[in-house]
Amino acid sequence: MLYIATVASRGPAALPGRRCVRGAWGRLGAMGDESVPYLLGEGTTKTYQIPISHLDYKFIEKCTDVKHLEKILRVLRSGEEGCYPELTLACEKRIECLDPRSRALRKEKPAATASDFTAEEWEAIHSELMSWLTEMNEDYKKSQLLRTDTLNERQDNLPPIRCSSSCLPTSQNKKLQNKQRSKKSIPRDYSEWDKFNVEKECSKIDEDVEESNSKARFSSRTSLPMIEKKIDTTGMTKREKIFIATREKEKGNEAFATGDYVEAVTYYTRSISVIPIAAVYNNKALAEIKLQDWDSALQDCEKVLDMEPGNIKALMRRATVHSHLQNYQAAIEDLNNVLSVEPENSRAKKNLLEIEEKLKGLKPISEPQGKGKKILIEEIEDSESGEGRGEDTEECERHGGDKTSAAPAAARAAAGEPAMGNAHRKSHGKGKAHDRDTRKHKDGAESGAKKGATEKKAEKLLSDHEGEVNGYLRSDEKSESAEAEEIKAHGEGSRSAAGDSSTSLPPTAAKLKSEGNELFKSGQFGEAVLKYSEAIEYVTGLGEQNPDDLSILYSNRAACYLKEGNCSDCIQDCNRALELQPFSLKPLLRRAMANESMERYRQAYIDYKTVLQIDSSIQAANDSANRITKTLIDQDGPSWREKLPPIPVVPVAAQIHRWDGGAPTSEKKPNTVDISREEPLQMNREEAMEEFKRLKNEGNELVKTGEYEEAANKYSECMKLNTEEYSVYTNRALCYLKLYKYEEAKRDCDHVLQIEDSNIKAFYRRALAYKGLQNYEASVDDFNKVLQIDPNVLEAQKELEEVTQLLHLDTSAGDDNQQMQGKKITIQEVVTDGQEEGTPEDAETARVAAEEAVAKAEARPCPERLRVSAPSNAYDFGQMVNAVNATKDKAACADLLTLTEPKRLPVLLSNKLEGEILLVFIQSLEHYVAGKDPGLAYQHLFYLSKAERFKVVVALLSKNEKEEVQQLFDVLSESQSDQYSLEDLESLKKVYEL
Amino acid sequence: MSAAGLERPQVVSHVQQALSYTVFDCKWVPRSARLLCLGSAARGTGLVQLYELHGARLELLREIEKPKPIKCGTFGATSLQQRYLATGDFDGNLNIWNLEAPEIPVYSVKGHKEIINSIDGVGGLGIGEGAPEIVTGSRDGTVKVWDPRQNDSPVANMEPVQGESKRDCWTVAFGNAYNQEERVVCAGYDNGDIKLFDLKTMSLRWETNIKNGVCSVEFDRKDINMNKLVATSLEGKFHVFDMRTQHPTKGFASVSEKAQKSTIWQVRHLPQNRDIFMTSGGSGSLHLWKYEYPAQRSKKDSEGSEMGVAGSLSLLQNVTLSTQPISCLDWSPDKKGLCVCGAFDQTVRVLIVTKLNKI
């Protein structure tokens, strides 16, 4: 009632009172709507003419127009319609909720007082100030005493006085002195300032300096910010040094925060030059990590650890550096140290897991001799993310051709190609082309390659750290750096060995092109475009066209356009390049990227798919295709595929062609290809290949879902089509191992080893097979061979130990063996999933098997693929679900769900069901299970709804999450299964509150 | 108050000290808990008062009276050991004082014909590479750069063409002093002009007009490759320029914000964090701001030249301390969050801004 008393007397006589009462009701949460409406809705406020009815809780609560609310607030605050503190507050809250930055919310506020803080805070503020004060006052007195002659000393170090500096050369000095004097008599006005020709003056100064040959201070014109790395600290007290060091650190931190890492490193260095502080070294190390200056970062981390052994941050950072330097063991050690201090450090855990996976992933790769090299190089190619491949391969082939063909071809091969180095690298890697006389090429290229690899890894890890950035752009950058390396390698090579190198491009064009390449490398894309355009003009002007070179020029120009964001020109150039040189990878990729950035996802998807058909190992294309798939699903719903233009099938000839430098084309350039040109024989072969590819793919899929029996069948069918592919044999061996058919597994491995006597996988699997057959001696033998080939295979080491033990304890073998099989299988799974494509024999097939890319892409987002085994109890299950949930690894979750009996779900979940877990389940069911086995998905959904807490969790699902569930149901209703009917589905939908 | 509200920095008025004269400028003495108040006594003389902060009160240590009212002062060009104060007065004199022996200035020059409105120093206190220099801006329209080692004449002088109307220069600031050669001076005028003079090349590097008189300009830091510039204006708006990228025609990108309806007298960046600054207003209010950088600080325009991208501003806190304008403001270089301001209600206030670490 006090409230009513505050009502102002202004305004329509009856209204304020009524409104106020209403306001009071609203505040109390009572009814009252019906009783008053007839009184409202008449009249408007004086300012802004807002209907009086808007000055109401209900209206304000519903209103979303911030501008209007701000007006209401102003009216309310002015008090011209009466004073309603509660309503004003409600209005403020509403605005704050809609737009927290609204200016209307800014109120005049008095300074904070003790009442705004808790007693402890207030105390803390004061005691902090007091301690500072005492410190300062003491310091002041001390400095008074210390006041000495250091001042003069310091003054000597000061730079000269501007313009009349004594250290300037006399001639110049005079000039400047004159200037000075004239300045005094005739003041230098603004217009004069404007007219002052800086360049001229500076060059004048430069000349003067040269003439007089003395050291002038003001003459050095540094265009780049040159910051002194050291600070002169003569005559400073310790406190002053701390003060300065802290400030430099702050400057470094600020620069770091804005992403100027170079600047940050400079300021940290300055800070360290005054007083070395561990924290500053630590920050500097982080900035250097961002700059990928691993060596310096390592040094700095070590300095920190010298000063403060056990510094967690430094350890974490050193681990990062080690892992980038591929020094995985050291990285693991550091992370373990971190975990020993902070066992709960989730980042350390995650990194550790990643690195361990990586370590494992590296193992089989570092096979001996040519083999190992080959794999390494293959990897790098992947890491180049495809960009920069098409032409390289062409070059490679051409170069190979040189050996046999005559001089003109040789000339062509040596054409001023940026990809030259790469070509050599590749031929070397394949071990097919033996060009001894170009050793330098190889070296250059290889070092480039290694560098490329490290950079790639670096990028990858960094992006891991920084979360999901645009991986696509990154990969692009990556390839650029790789390209740059190539160019360098080529430069060296051509100088040393290319006496015979002339180019198929006319020298002028070649020169223009290489200039263009240089500009591109240095990031001057605009200028590079000009150079390429000139080159193109020149070449086309000559009439006698060389489609290859012209295509490359177009493709390069397209790259520049892409960099500049000029997508339409990029697409045009790509089209031209593809007309001239159908099925070149680079233009296809670039066109895809351009299309993607123009949000023409369908075209982009088609291009990526085409690229993948030509070469399935291109990571960037894989990633992008996946990403676009998601976008298209979002856009078009589950039936997105129907809206796609048909994906051009790249004939096998094209894939083989790829190595020949040419390629067939896609449907997008209708006038360039006609498939009928291909010989029927090739068509047959193509079909066979397709079939083979399909079967193998299906086999791989089945392995992933754990259906080994069927997988083995598929592989067997594969073998009928192509007996040469030993990867199929090793894969089938794996299936047999899982099915405990050791004899068959052994046979497959034997077969492979007959063809290739150093296949590490075959050895490993045969060893496991022997172990299963309890032929421990043979098993030990095979494990030893594995370790001979690559001593770093941890699994093999482990297994070897176990088997040796078994050999000794032959009596208890039976029991142990049983256990071990379980273990063995989990390990196997990791090996297969992670690496199927990375190994040499598979890599070859992978090229042909374009579709495999999809499978790989599915597996790839989770490099640290979780090991999943059938859960035995709720605890096991909970652990696995948590792991899956932490990484959002849907593939692993799908595995888990396939392994789990739906009926047991409620028991296994017990009361642990949460929104996040449900979501992960739903997503993995949708993406991985529903397609293959809708029945199983339905069962899971059904039993999920029986789990404890299900009702609560479903009730709390957000709108987006509900949509996910809806999508899953859509998928299920589209695909049929005998396990459920549409009615079942409908009723289940209701349970899920859809 | 909401939880979010508590997390924001709070401004606490720690000490209020009433003065018997009009205060124009107040400054912390570097490396100490002392502060100076500069102003004009009722009888038309200049006053310098040295206070020391003792707990919750200010103790007057020394009072120095000079013939002319003192408008502005700086420690920017002195060494950390000497801590000589440079002042500009109503008569256009630039003086440098040793506060231990303030009877005779250590340096004195009649620099301008009229009042020196603003003064700034660089190269001292370990802030800024290169020679110690002082810049003064005056009602006579000139901006002059002085080296305390050179008597009588400025080392650089910037003034309008003879005959052209002289604009009152209200504010000056040094910047870009990240190495021995580079240095710029920024000056703001009563007609809204902002001019950026490059002292290395002796040229006018950039100019713009913000329509209303420029009350205060300051770089976020003087001793780095120039990063940001804040310019406040007469009608309550202020502009933040991103000084990293200069477009050939468009100059520097900027964002503007209206703090209040009255003049913004001063802007001062937190010495410990360049992205936080405080503005003081004609209505006796203080606003604490934070500049947030955009994701990309520069982009290419259609012709391929780099142009800057301005970030955004968020208001961290605002308080109203007085009904009179707050004319001067200074952060303690030594204690983060400690701040002094002087208002025309003849009061200096020592403020504590809390939770600056958490931003």
From TrEMBL, chain B:
Transmembrane segments: none annotated. One of its GO terms (biological process) is apoptotic process. GO terms for cellular component: dynein axonemal particle. WD repeats lie at residues 134-156. InterPro entries: WD40/YVTN_repeat-like_dom_sf, WD40_PAC1, WD40_repeat_dom_sf, WD40_rpt. PROSITE patterns: WD_REPEATS_2 (PS50082). Pfam families: WD40. It is found in: Dynein axonemal particle. Gene3D superfamilies: YVTN repeat-like/Quinoprotein amine dehydrogenase. It comes from the Eukaryota. Keywords: Apoptosis, Cytoplasm, Repeat, WD repeat. Key assembly factor specifically required for the stability of axonemal dynein heavy chains in cytoplasm. This is Dynein axonemal assembly factor 10.
